[in-house]
């Protein structure tokens, strides 16, 4: 009688569509294979395979199984009478392999000047060869392989239940083309690379300013400015325009704070400027993303022009044949004054228009005078006309027109009082209508001028020189302004975001001279001081590209022609964002029998994004932590830890880092157990695993003995044992006719 060994294989693939699977081929000495598709409810309703071996066989090699699958095997003896009851199922798992296929539907698109978003779909589940743990996202500059460099890879977790995966690659070069690839990986390693895709980061503002900025004066009101484009590698886009900002630097009253102009080419002519005036000129290139860094200021001067008329003129009788004429400076010099032209008009019956000679005049004749200033360009308009008549009696007179006097703090100033008169006049000085007394800092000079030593801001005011004799009197008024550095501004914060701080300030004392520029000085805590120069007309400014959750210190300084003034009080502002806050454990950790999934995305902080994670793991019985993840990117959604022991207690330490600091939280969990003839698998909690913040626990003995999944197999095993005893009895009865024993076995897959 021929006796055979019957092999039964049962498999269910959790990764296959609709819960069905195609049974793997199983060869057993040429014996036919039977496969049935179905669900896992029973051996009769799922896909199984059978093969027979000759009697006396006590082992078998099962080939062509699928990687990372759980199989159940049972053995039955078969003789000419029939098949014995099967043995208890034996559960085995095949070893996993690296994924056999690459991610599909890979697409890449630039989302910012520093970021590219990748989207893709997971490979066919039949090619996973185990539980996928995530993906490696590689990128390199397009064409960089020619220089021997390879891809840089980031690690990305899987999205539970998602049909499409996505990841944003950050810290890329601006307006640059990159090549991207992906690899799926499991506990055994990475699979093949995907097809390469390319994408270009978006444009950004130019990082470098235009170079070779030069200017030349075309006329007294026009300048021509030329420049070259920024270096192409720092342009970060296609240049669409240039912005010129030109600001007058001379302290003329009424000059505008600054103007700007947008042009398309590498040169521009700017007009309607002030004559013989210094201008600060900067140029910045612009792309579609905005205006970039401005060039360092250069100083350009318009050409000279004829001056304006002297603002005042005065004639004083100096004797019977002379008149002293004095005048003030023109309102605007429009250049360097090279000479003054003094005109005199005599009575009609006398010679007219004698130049600069005001002596040898005819007594008791009325003369008129006016004056004009000249530069190298020519003569300017004339002043007002004044008149005087020479006389034998000389009243006290002062041949000066006075006016505004400006002096820097700490310097010495002499206020002149040139006088005439016969007899000699009496000279006195008044300050703001109060007599000037003899002090250490006030000295009356031999020519009756007034010397002020070491001028201070308090010395500013009106100074009057009075001259008088018995024939009359005269006076001259000076308005002294002592220029000091600007006063301190009142700086305060208007608020902050995660990356910006906005400050404003009230107008400060200009120190007696127009403010030329402002400097805002700031640093992070800790950090080095940095400085940004602001236009003089601003009263508010926003610092950008700051770090979230960080303290910053700021102060403001104003500058005039004397130099920098007093700094404002230092203010402290904090950008929005805090250290990562740990989520509750039920949102963070999901376990099954052999894996634990950490949902990193549950740490998300909208104000201060997480930059990195570090995962550590240890059995509860151990004191040593093992770093299982390396440094994971902050954008990673989840991380899967595989090859865990069923029904084991573990402790998990997770550190999340953002610019505001680190947060480390410890969790405890227990992996699930294998129940009955089923192995619990999959992501997420499946009944039986317990989580706790300080420790985990497995199922209790009471839970086990009331669990149908435990009781039903026991009952079935008892029935099978009785059947085996009956079969053995029949075998012994027929042993005289048979020379071999038959042992049945079968194999079943659960995944």
Automatic annotation (TrEMBL):
Keywords: Cell adhesion, Disulfide bond, Immunoglobulin domain, Membrane, Repeat, Signal, Transmembrane, Transmembrane helix. One of its GO terms (cellular component) is synapse. It is found in: Membrane. One of its GO terms (biological process) is synapse assembly. Residues 390-481 form the Ig-like domain. The chain crosses the membrane at residues 710-733. Its main location: membrane. It holds the Pfam family FN3_DSCAM-DSCAML_C. Residues 2-97, 102-204, 209-305, 309-393, 485-578, 580-677 form the Fibronectin type-III domain. PROSITE patterns: FN3, IG_LIKE. It is a single-pass membrane protein. CDD domains: FN3. This is Down syndrome cell adhesion molecule-like protein Dscam2. It comes from Chionoecetes opilio. The gene is Dscam2_7.
């Amino acid at each position: 009688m021929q006796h055979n060994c019957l092999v039964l294989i049962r498999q269910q693939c959790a990764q296959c569509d609709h819960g069905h699977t195609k049974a793997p081929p199983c060869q057993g000495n040429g014996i036919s294979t039977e496969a049935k598709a179905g669900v896992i409810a029973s051996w009769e309703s799922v896909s199984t395979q059978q093969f027979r071996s000759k009697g006396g066989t006590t082992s078998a090699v099962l080939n062509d199984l699928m990687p990372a699958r759980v199989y159940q095997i049972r053995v039955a003896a078969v003789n000419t009478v029939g098949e014995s009851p099967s043995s208890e199922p034996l559960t085995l798992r095949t070893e996993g392999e690296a994924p056999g296929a690459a991610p599909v539907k890979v697409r890449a698109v630039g989302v910012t000047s520093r970021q590219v978003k990748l989207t893709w779909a997971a490979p066919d589940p039949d090619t996973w060869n185990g539980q996928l743990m995530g993906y490696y996202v590689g990128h390199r500059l397009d064409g960089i392989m020619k220089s021997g460099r390879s891809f840089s890879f980031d690690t990305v977790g899987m999205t539970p239940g998602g049909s499409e995966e996505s990841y944003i690659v950050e810290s890329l070069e601006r307006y640059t083309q990159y090549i991207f690839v992906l690899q799926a990986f499991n506990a055994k390693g990475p699979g093949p690379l995907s097809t390469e895709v390319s994408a270009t980061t978006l444009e950004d503002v130019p990082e470098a300013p235009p170079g070779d900025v030069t200017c030349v004066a075309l006329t007294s009101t026009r300048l021509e400015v030329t420049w070259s484009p920024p270096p192409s590698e720092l342009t970060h886009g296609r240049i669409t325009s240039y912005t010129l900002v030109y600001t007058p630097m001379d302290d003329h009253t009424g000059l505008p704070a600054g103007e700007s102009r947008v042009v398309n080419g590498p040169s521009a002519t700017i007009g309607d400027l002030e004559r013989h005036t210094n201008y600060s000129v900067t140029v910045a290139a612009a792309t579609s993303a905005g205006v970039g860094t401005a060039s360092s200021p250069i100083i350009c001067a318009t050409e000279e022009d004829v001056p304006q008329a002297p603002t005042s003129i005065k004639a004083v009788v100096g004797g019977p044949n002379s008149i002293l004429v004095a005048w003030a400076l023109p309102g605007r010099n429009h250049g360097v004054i090279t000479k003054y032209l003094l005109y005199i008009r005599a009575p009609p019956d006398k010679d007219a228009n004698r130049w600069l000679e005001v002596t040898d005049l005819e007594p008791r004749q009325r003369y008129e005078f006016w004056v004009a200033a000249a530069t190298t360009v020519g003569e300017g308009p004339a002043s007002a006309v004044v008149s005087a008549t020479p006389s034998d009696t000389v009243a006290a007179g002062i041949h000066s027109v006075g006016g505004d006097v400006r002096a820097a703090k700490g310097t010495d100033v002499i206020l002149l009082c040139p006088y005439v008169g016969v007899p000699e006049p009496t000279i006195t000085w008044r300050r703001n209508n109060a007599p000037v007394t003899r002090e250490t800092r006030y000295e009356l000079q031999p020519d009756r001028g007034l010397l002020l030593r070491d001028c201070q801001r308090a010395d500013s005011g009106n100074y009057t020189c009075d001259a008088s004799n018995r024939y009359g009197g005269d006076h001259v008024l000076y308005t002294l302004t002592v220029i000091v550095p600007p006063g301190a501004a009142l700086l305060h914060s208007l608020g902050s975001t995660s990356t910006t701080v906005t400050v404003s300030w009230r107008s400060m004392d200009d120190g007696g001279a127009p403010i030329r520029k402002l400097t805002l000085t700031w640093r992070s805590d800790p950090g080095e001081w940095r400085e940004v120069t602001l236009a003089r007309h601003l009263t508010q400014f926003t610092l950008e590209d700051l770090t979230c959750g960080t303290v910053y210190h700021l102060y403001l300084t104003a500058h005039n022609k004397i130099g920098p003034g007093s700094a404002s009080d230092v203010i402290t502002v904090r950008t929005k964002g805090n250290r990562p806050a740990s989520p509750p454990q039920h949102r963070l950790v999901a376990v099954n029998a052999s894996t634990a999934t950490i949902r990193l995305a549950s740490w998300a902080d909208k104000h201060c994004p997480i930059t990195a994670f570090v995962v550590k793991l240890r059995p509860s019985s151990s004191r040593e932590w093992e770093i299982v993840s390396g440094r994971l990117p902050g954008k990673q959604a989840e991380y899967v830890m595989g090859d865990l022991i069923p029904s084991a207690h573990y402790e998990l330490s997770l550190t999340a880092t953002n610019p505001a600091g680190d947060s480390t939280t410890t969790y405890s969990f227990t992996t699930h157990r294998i129940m009955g003839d089923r192995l619990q698998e999959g992501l997420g909690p499946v009944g039986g695993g317990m989580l706790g913040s300080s420790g985990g626990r497995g199922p209790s003995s009471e839970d086990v003995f009331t669990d149908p999944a435990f009781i039903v197999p026991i009952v079935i095993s008892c029935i099978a044992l009785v059947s085996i005893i009956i079969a053995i009895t029949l075998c012994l009865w027929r042993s005289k006719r048979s020379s071999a024993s038959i042992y049945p076995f079968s194999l079943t897959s659960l995944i």
